[in-house]
Design brief:
Strand order of the largest sheet: 1-2
Mean pLDDT: 87
Strand content: under 5%
Helix content: 40-55%
Number of helices: 5
Structural class: mainly alpha
Distance between the termini: 27 Å
Oligomer: single chain
Low-confidence stretches: none
C-alpha cells in the first residue's frame, strides 16, 4: 500500500486538499459518529462533539457553526487517513471554518 504525502509547501496542492465541501464534511462526520456509537460509546469513551445537538436537522451554516475544532480535525484526518498530513495543513483547514483557532 502506498501512502501519499500532502505537501504543505505546494500552495496549489494544499488548496485542493483544503476545499472539502460542507455536505462532504457532514457525511464524513456522520461516519465518525456512527463508528463511535458502534465501537466506542459502550466502553464509556467520551465523544469529541456535542451529543445534545441534532446534527442531521441543522442547515449547513448551523452545522459549521456548531461543529468544534476537534471534530473538524477528525473529519479532515479521516478523509486523508492514507496520507501523511502536516499539522499546518490541518490547522489551515480548521481556520477555514472556525477562526481564530489554536490547533494541535
Amino acid at each position: 500500500m502506498e501512502i501519499k504525502r500532502i505537501n504543505n509547501d505546494d500552495a496549489e496542492q494544499a488548496r485542493e486538499y483544503l476545499n472539502i465541501p460542507v455536505p462532504e464534511i457532514r457525511k464524513l462526520f456522520q461516519k465518525i459518529v456512527s463508528t463511535y456509537n458502534t465501537h466506542l460509546k459502550s466502553y464509556g469513551v467520551a465523544p469529541l462533539w456535542k451529543e445534545t445537538i441534532d446534527w442531521e436537522n441543522l442547515t449547513d451554516g448551523e452545522f459549521i457553526e456548531n461543529i468544534d475544532t476537534k471534530a473538524l480535525q477528525m473529519v479532515f484526518l479521516y478523509k486523508y487517513m492514507q496520507c501523511f498530513v502536516h499539522k499546518d495543513t490541518v490547522s489551515a483547514f480548521i481556520r477555514k471554518y472556525n477562526s481564530p483557532v489554536s490547533v494541535l
